[in-house]
């Protein structure tokens, strides 16, 4: 094993040796020395390199092979391996003496026998390594499996039973997701504050005007009051959506257990949006099976999902003058509801961000249609709770289709029948 380490090192150094031999040969020729001298010199160089490489490899392997020796038994090793985080053990010189299974997988370049400072090169790590006898915590960004991750690294002195040497347990807590959530929360609060501040500033301005210059101007008062009513409605819609999003997030891990007829939900939404479709002169069409289709869900939340999607189609796809809502079987045990419009469509670079909070493809159009930028975020969270998924097909000039896939209920027989008043004309 050790010989293999030396030969591996020699093989890695072979290009350098060949260059050195060539230079030596040219020097011997220029000095007028016979070729045997050059050959002997080359062999001496190879032997020196082999000896040096083999010595380094042996030292490294001896260090690595003895790391199990610091454990009096396997119980502590099993305990460290049982940690859900990546963890390793250092000696007081900062040399890695043991890695648990997760650390081996997460940091493949780190091996027993390596100085930790060579693997994780950061000034703060160096400071901690100089005082390893003291507990410490370090936040560090590390590239793992090709991705940049942020870890909170905890250094804790560890006295192992049966060992006179001092050791340090190093635990890596992945903070990447938490920091991303914190950034999202900060952005969300900032965006929500901005969205509320705009209509509030408008209301304040008009109230001041009505109390001042427009106090005795009936025409101006009437116009300003209408604008104020519109801005108050904008604030109400935003607050309603914020509350809906908050409720969806709070219940995201609670799987609904009620049987809900998707056909009945779609028809109820169609009835509610019928006047809006007539006002926009858009045909709201349905292609649905006759019998009920049952899923496990919460009826009010599913109503909100399909109301948001159909309302978006009417708002942003009305130029196509047609919205088609259809339902079909998907993979075994699933059904897919599709809401298609023939409007302007959405460019590909916008599609991955459609469910982000406050994201708008066209901010100007969204303001004109009184959108809050939260509708699809609410849809995503509700579908996550229902173990469903949302996909979208769109291209500029070709319209947009949203697909909602939901798992069917195990028993498709429903206790309630669809009321005749729920049926819509296609």
TrEMBL record:
Keywords in alphabetical order: Kinase, Membrane, Phosphoprotein, Transferase, Transmembrane, Transmembrane helix, Two-component regulatory system
GO BP term (any one): cellular response to phosphate starvation
Record EC number: 2.7.13.3
Molecular function via GO: phosphoprotein phosphatase activity; phosphorelay sensor kinase activity
Gene3D superfamilies per the UniProt record, alphabetical: 1.10.287.130, Histidine kinase-like ATPase, C-terminal domain (3.30.565.10)
Cellular component annotations (GO), alphabetically ordered: plasma membrane
Catalytic activity: ATP + protein L-histidine = ADP + protein N-phospho-L-histidine
Domain spans labelled Histidine kinase: 191-410
Full protein name: histidine kinase
């Amino acid at each position: 094993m050790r010989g293999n380490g030396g030969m591996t090192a020699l093989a890695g150094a072979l290009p350098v040796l060949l260059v050195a031999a060539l230079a030596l040969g040219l020097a011997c020729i220029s000095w007028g020395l016979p070729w045997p001298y050059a050959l002997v010199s080359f062999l001496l160089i190879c032997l020196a390199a082999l000896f040096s490489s083999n010595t380094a490899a042996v030292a490294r392997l001896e260090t690595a092979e003895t790391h199990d020796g610091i454990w009096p038994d396997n119980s502590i090793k099993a305990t460290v391996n049982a940690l859900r985080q990546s963890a390793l053990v250092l000696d007081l010189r900062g040399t890695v003496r043991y890695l648990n299974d997760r650390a081996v997988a997460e940091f493949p370049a780190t091996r027993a026998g390596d100085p930790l400072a060579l693997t994780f090169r950061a000034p703060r790590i160096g400071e901690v390594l100089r005082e390893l006898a003291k507990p410490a915590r370090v936040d560090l960004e590390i590239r793992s499996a090709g991705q940049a991750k942020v870890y909170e690294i905890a250094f804790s002195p560890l006295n192992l039973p049966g060992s006179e040497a001092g050791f340090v347990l190093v635990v890596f807590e992945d903070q990447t997701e938490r920091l991303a959530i914190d950034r999202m929360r900060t952005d969300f609060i900032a965006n929500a504050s901005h969205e509320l501040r705009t209509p509030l500033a408008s209301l304040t301005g008009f109230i001041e005007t009505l109390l001042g210059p427009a106090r005795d101007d009936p025409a101006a008062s009437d116009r300003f009051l209408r604008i104020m009513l519109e801005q108050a409605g904008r604030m109400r819609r935003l607050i309603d959506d914020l509350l809906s999003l908050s409720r969806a997030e709070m219940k995201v891990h609670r799987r609904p257990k009620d049987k809900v007829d998707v056909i009945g939900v779609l028809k109820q939404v169609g009835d509610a949006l019928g006047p809006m479709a007539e006002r926009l002169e858009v045909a709201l069409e349905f292609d649905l099976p006759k019998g009920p289709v049952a899923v496990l869900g919460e009826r009010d939340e599913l109503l909100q999902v399909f109301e948001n999607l159909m309302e978006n189609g009417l708002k942003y796809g009305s130029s196509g003058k047609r919205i088609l809502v259809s339902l079909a079987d998907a993979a075994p045990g699933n059904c897919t509801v599709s809401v298609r419009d023939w409007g302007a469509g959405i460019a590909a670079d916008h599609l991955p961000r459609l469910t982000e909070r406050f994201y708008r493809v066209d901010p100007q159009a969204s303001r004109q249609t009184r959108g809050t930028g939260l509708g699809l975020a609410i849809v995503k969270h509700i579908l996550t709770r229902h173990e469903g998924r949302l996909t979208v097909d769109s291209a500029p000039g070709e319209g947009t289709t949203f697909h909602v896939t939901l798992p069917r209920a195990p028993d498709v027989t429903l206790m309630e029948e669809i009321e005749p008043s729920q049926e819509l004309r296609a």
